[in-house]
Amino acid sequence: MRDIAGFREQAIRVLARAGAAAGAAAGPEEALWTITRPLPERLGDRESPLRPGNLKQGETQQFACCCFVVTPDRRSNFLVAPVNFGPTQRHMKIDIELGHPGHVVRTKQPMLLANTDAHRSFVKILETFRAGSAVFAPLMWRGDALGVIICASQARNTFSEPDLDVHVAFSHLAAAQWMAQQGPEYLQSVAA
After folding, report:
1. Which of 25, 39, 53, 78 could make a disulfide contact with 31, Cβ separation 3.0–4.6 Å?
2. How far apart are CA 185 and CA 2, in angstroms?
3. DSSP at 136
4. Sign, CA torsion 73/105/64/165
């Protein structure tokens, strides 16, 4: 059984380290990487892949994390700070309306997909694997969604409400760091 109190206590320590590292980062994408790199190591039920049905034949448990930030023309979500995405996916653009990233940006609400198989609207974006479980949180700044942070795993039922709560806390750090590190200006130069 998962120790939720211990998980949350550990998450606070990881959040503090990520915040310190983000504040010392050389730029906005580097700051976001200090957040997207530790999340896959901390979020999720590590016993999930052992339960029957959570991995399909040929699948292995793996994680990915990233941020999508809204482009200045508000027509696309632009991938930054990817962890375990395909090498050709760095700085890719997806339509602002595409899938659950688009939904989270539009509604400005976090989302938990414990089992993506239960959501016919789920869109595979990762080249490396098909996500079986995912958490999404908007990057909020002054009432606007700047983008979305996503953490995904291949095993279904990996993420639950406690994971979403922690993920949302990291999303606030990511939004603040993006703005503090001149993320919008950086985006103008790389997303043109």
Report:
1. 25
2. 42
3. E
4. positive
Beta strand ranges found along 142-187 (DSSP E): 144-153
Residues in the chain: 192
pLDDT tens for 43-102 read 999 999 999 999 999 999 999 999 999 999 999 999 999 999 999 998 999 999 999 999
Read off the pTM.
Answer: 0.96
Report the distance separating Cα 84 and Cα 1, nearest Å. Answer: 28
| Measured distance CA(153)–CA(27) in Å, rounded | 27
CA distance 121 to 98: 10
Here the tokens at position 103 are 């939904």
